[in-house]
Design brief:
The protein is α+β, with helices and mostly antiparallel strands and 207 residues long. It is 43% helix and 31% strand. It is elongated, with a radius of gyration of 29 Å. The relative contact order is 0.16. The mean pLDDT is 80.
Length: 207
Amino acid sequence: MNSNLVFFFVLVLLLKTSNALVVDVPSGRVKCLTEDLRRSALSYARYRVVSSSSATTDVTISTRVSDPFGETIHHAEEVERGEFSFQAEETGKHTACFWSPRFEISGLVSVEVEWKTGIRARDWKAVAKKGDIDVMEMELKKLEDSVKLIHEELIFLREREAEAQRLNEETISRMDSFGLLSLVICLGVAGLQLWHLKAFFEKEKIL
């Protein structure tokens, strides 16, 4: 893969604005969102109930966020809104699941979720306040962190590409072994059939 193309692709992913997603959660069912994060990647999300088919006003939602191994990162029960942030400890799919704690026939709860990852997940206002830096310094800090993150993402993509290539080579090797085994079995069956026919003909004195 061309390095300039990869760089451009990662840059677009990092700098694009994050739009909130509305998830419709039917009563009695669970809806999940996933983010494929690399190890040590930052992640921040906020969610809130925006509408419901229920006649009641105190509509709530429950949520659970888990890592690739199923370990709970965030858990909340019966809330109208919430947020979570973490730094990924393992590479892989991180999942956020939402469900309605109250069951109603044909019930539906709409949840607005805004999930940011990487450089977009950092709280730059807190960084500026803590370091007492001006706007120009903060923009330079953003740029510096963006370059570091792009470099890390390129390494991550190369590792994924190498892993995919290794799996592809293993699959081809297994297919070759399977093909050879199938050929040996077919030859063995053909040999047995010939032996059986020869024995039959000799028994009937045809040969």
